[in-house]
């Protein structure tokens, strides 16, 4: 498929064969819940952080976020306790999380076009499974990167490199959809075209070249660009 946008809202991908997608803030409206879960996990360890301090860091994995908040590795005793605490607090929030507008329709369109669809997220398997089920798209994401398949999370390119391998395509044949500057940095490092969505509520997107509102707006632009 040739992605030749008529407007600058999308990057050009002359031979589009795969759609790589982030989960939190891209398909699921879950970023605020992640921030609350981290704040609660920190409080469990007698570390006080405001949600406003944590929220801009959402989009990193625990290996990046724990050092940013505490100066310690996620593999330290404190780091392990924080990661476990985040999981424990986030899990009960999942039933309240909604899909972002057009998430399922975007995935259905990509599948109908014959594109490989890969979830490019390094979240813990049980959390990702529950979240995909909650937002009603688990049946549309046949391929995904598992947490134990990457050394480093975003903004490192490992997750996207693993997603490309699962799709069996080159970096030039994929489009990655995310919602944070960490996603954009990972995409640039991996050489993958990227679109970011504002619906996740993440800061700093105004400096990025290709930004749209939500999955529904992205789908509309993709349809125009491939018609």
Automatic annotation (TrEMBL):
Signal peptide: none annotated. SUPFAM superfamilies: HAD-like. Gene3D superfamilies: HAD superfamily/HAD-like, Putative phosphatase, domain 2. GO terms for cellular component: cytosol. One of its GO terms (biological process) is DNA repair. Keywords: Hydrolase. InterPro entries: HAD-like_hydrolase_sf (IPR050155), HAD-like_sf (IPR036412), HAD-SF_hydro_IA (IPR006439), HAD_2 (IPR041492), HAD_sf (IPR023214), PGP-like_dom2 (IPR023198). GO terms for molecular function: phosphoglycolate phosphatase activity. CDD domains: HAD_like. Pfam families: HAD_2. NCBIfam families: HAD-SF-IA-v1 (TIGR01549), HAD-SF-IA-v3 (TIGR01509). PANTHER family: BLL8046 PROTEIN, PHOSPHOGLYCOLATE PHOSPHATASE. This is HAD family hydrolase. It comes from Deinococcus wulumuqiensis.
């Amino acid at each position: 498929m040739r992605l030749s946008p008529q407007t600058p809202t999308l990057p050009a991908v002359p031979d589009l064969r795969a759609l790589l997608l982030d989960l939190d803030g891209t398909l699921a409206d879950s970023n605020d819940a992640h921030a609350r879960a981290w704040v609660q996990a920190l409080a469990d360890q007698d570390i006080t952080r405001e949600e406003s301090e944590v929220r801009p860091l959402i989009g990193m994995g625990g290996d990046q976020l724990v050092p940013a908040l505490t100066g310690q590795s996620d593999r330290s005793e404190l780091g392990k306790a924080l990661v476990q605490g985040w999981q424990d607090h986030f899990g009960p929030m999942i039933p309240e999380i909604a899909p972002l507008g057009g998430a399922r329709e975007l995935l259905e369109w990509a599948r109908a076009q014959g594109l490989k669809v890969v979830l490019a997220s390094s979240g813990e398997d049980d959390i990702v499974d529950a979240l995909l089920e909650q937002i009603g798209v688990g049946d549309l994401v046949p391929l995904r990167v598992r947490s134990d398949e990457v050394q480093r999370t975003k903004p490192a390119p490992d997750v996207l490199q693993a997603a490309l391998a699962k799709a069996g395509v080159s970096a030039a044949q994929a489009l990655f959809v995310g919602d944070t500057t960490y996603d954009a940095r990972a995409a640039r490092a991996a050489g993958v075209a990227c679109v970011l969505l504002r619906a996740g509520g993440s800061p700093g997107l105004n400096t990025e070249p290709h930004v749209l509102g939500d999955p529904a707006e992205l789908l509309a632009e993709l349809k125009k660009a491939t018609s």
